[in-house]
Specification:
CATH architecture of the largest domain: 3-Layer(aba) Sandwich
Structural class: alpha/beta
Strand content: 35-45%
Number of strands: 12
Order of helices and strands: EEEEEHEEHEHEEHEHE
CATH superfamily of the largest domain: Nucleotide-binding domain of ferredoxin-NADP reductase (FNR) module
Distance between the termini: 23 Å
Number of domains: 2
Number of helices: 5
Mean pLDDT: 93
CATH class of the largest domain: Alpha Beta
Radius of gyration: 17 Å
Largest sheet: 6 strands, antiparallel
Strand order of the largest sheet: 4-3-6-1-2-5
Length: 232
């Protein structure tokens, strides 16, 4: 049974429209693996719990970072969206088996949509903290340029590491956009031709993940090299 801990909100700020970063400093530090999540207890009304992936890497012991997308009418997301520094929250975790492998021996392809990026971000951070000469790809599907969560973080990482390839793909791009357009699964299929010695990690809405999983199988990825987590 995962441990129940309490913590205080220390920061809450807008990352992109309708997506907020909430940082919580736990009273007691709990070790977790990149990709895992915590259940956060939502105290307003009838108490409920909502899973949120930890977007900060395990090496950062100052706080647990959560990426929250506001859903219209969503009880949990609106509560989390409106939290302010000083508020106290109860959490249970860590949980989840969608985690980064201990040893990075292959090139890695990450593909995410929306706040599914919150599971992927600490994995990529941890890879480069450890150091690797493997090629690391991140395909990130979103609607518009204004929706690119953690854009500066990934662009900075790409500028520091030539083996990191950040490929955002917009489904509703403006005429001024010079990057990839269309659905992330189509972009990945077009750009990745050789799957030899590669692992693939998928995270996002269920429909995208299922399509990407099928594409990965069609490309020849062995099932044990396909790691995924679906969001409802």
């Amino acid at each position: 049974m995962a441990e129940i801990i309490e913590g205080g909100v220390i920061e809450s700020f807008e990352e992109v429209p309708d997506v907020r970063v909430v940082r919580i400093r736990p009273d007691k530090w709990v070790e977790f693996k990149p990709g895992q999540y915590f259940q956060i207890f939502i105290p307003e009304g009838e108490e409920t719990v909502k899973p949120y992936s930890v977007a900060s890497p395990p090496s950062n012991r100052k706080y647990l970072e959560f990426c929250v997308k506001r859903v219209e009418g969503g009880h949990a997301s609106n509560f989390m969206f409106n939290t302010e520094p000083g508020e106290r929250l109860k959490m249970q975790g860590p949980m989840g088996r969608f985690v980064l492998q201990e040893q990075i021996t292959n090139d890695i392809i990450f593909a995410a949509t929306g706040t599914g990026i919150s599971s992927i971000k600490p994995m990529i951070r941890t890879i480069f903290e450890r150091g690797t000469d493997r090629q690391i790809w991140l395909f990130f599907g979103i609607r518009t340029e204004n929706d690119i969560i953690y854009k500066k973080d990934f662009e900075t990482l790409a500028s520091k590491h030539k083996n990191f390839h950040f490929v955002p793909s917009l489904s509703r791009a403006s005429e001024a956009w010079n990057g990839e357009r269309g659905y992330v699964q189509d972009v990945m299929k077009r750009l990745i031709k050789d799957i030899t010695n590669k692992d693939i990690y998928l995270c996002g809405v269920a429909e995208m993940v299922e399509q990407m999983r099928k594409i990965a199988e069609q490309l020849g990825f062995p099932k044990e090299k396909i790691h995924f987590e679906k969001y409802v």
